[in-house]
């Protein structure tokens, strides 16, 4: 899906999006971000749903998740049976099922995640048990409201499945919703601190084994390409598209090969310029006079028209166009990667593709210094109080949206990369 914040892509305009060769197949929004500014009342008064309000083509599916993968909105206060507390751009807010479903009714998405009592990976057993019970109760409330808002035939619901770090509770939570009249399921609470690989895989399997094979499994949470492939191997079908956006915010251009037949990126990993075999860092002074495209051979708008030197200059001078060009390239590259994954699944060669990609991709982890260049991505799921590239500071809506905050983040990223 295309990642958006409050319904808008971070750097891509509709005309740029429509001209892209690899378009994301769905448009993602976070339901919680429509609690206020715009409120569900404003959306409803505007009419004809989120497609009309956000100027999305009717042919583009709109998917409403229950969380933003780049910042953790839950836990402003402990949830109660009445609803969950979130932090949004206007402050803390209580979200009962009625309010949540009023937003869904106004957005009329093609697919949406029902209200969930979200917890992070470090939640204690008693808390896990309580949130499963509460989420099940809210799911029933959302199903009733789905009918009363006449959303049958308009929107498909995804039932959230919690369970935290417990295999037993993941399995129990999945069994509780497996027979519900929903379009699919959302695997909640992942990428919040669990170890990718074996631990996450076991938790996913515990839930997915209880679910019908013919319904969608969606997993919110920012994932690197290799983590995403691991989740596909476990049976996840749908992901948010936050990874290329976060890479863009750090000034990187993705360059990992998409097929075994493709040569590795030119040049050697370089600690000083923050380069590894998956991405290059355009903040680095090494690109000041580099006339080549971001990634040689790439057919995206940015790579076919502009040089690394120009993008480096735009980042250095805090010109918005720098992030626009990087997001064009990174979205194009990431969607081409997902296209290759879909082809491998269709042709029955996913296992081979997965093995090749994982071995190839993980080569970036040597030497150790290079791990630091991508460490913030790996840490994003562990420390949900900050977005990638923020220098460890807690994000706020004003900082995310305001010029001053952005400049500060860019300056920090610049210093980190050029040290
Ligand atoms: Zn490109």
3D architecture notes:
With 419 residues, the protein is α/β, with parallel strands linked by helices. The protein is built from 16 helices and eleven strands. The protein has two domains: 25-240, TIM Barrel; 252-418, no CATH class. The strands form three sheets. The chain has a seven-stranded parallel β-sheet. A two-stranded antiparallel sheet has the order 3-4. It is globular, with a radius of gyration of 21 Å. The model is unreliable at 365-410 (pLDDT under 50). The structure holds zinc ion.
CATH class of the largest domain: Alpha Beta
Order of helices and strands: HEHHEEEHEHEHEHEHEHEEHHHHHHH
CATH superfamily descriptor of the largest domain: Queuine tRNA-ribosyltransferase-like
Radius of gyration: 21 Å
What is this structure's SSE topology?
Elements: H1 14-18, E1 27-30, H2 40-46, H3 49-53, E2 62-65, E3 84-88, E4 91-95, H4 97-107, E5 111-113, H5 125-148, E6 156-161, H6 167-177, E7 184-187, H7 198-208, E8 216-219, H8 225-234, E9 238-239, H9 242-249, E10 252-254, E11 279-281, H10 301-305, H11 308-316, H12 320-346, H13 350-361, H14 368-380, H15 397-401, H16 403-418
Parallel strand pairs: 1-2, 2-5, 5-6, 6-7, 7-8, 8-9
Antiparallel strand pairs: 3-4, 10-11
The site of zinc ion has 8 residues, from helix 10 and helix 12.
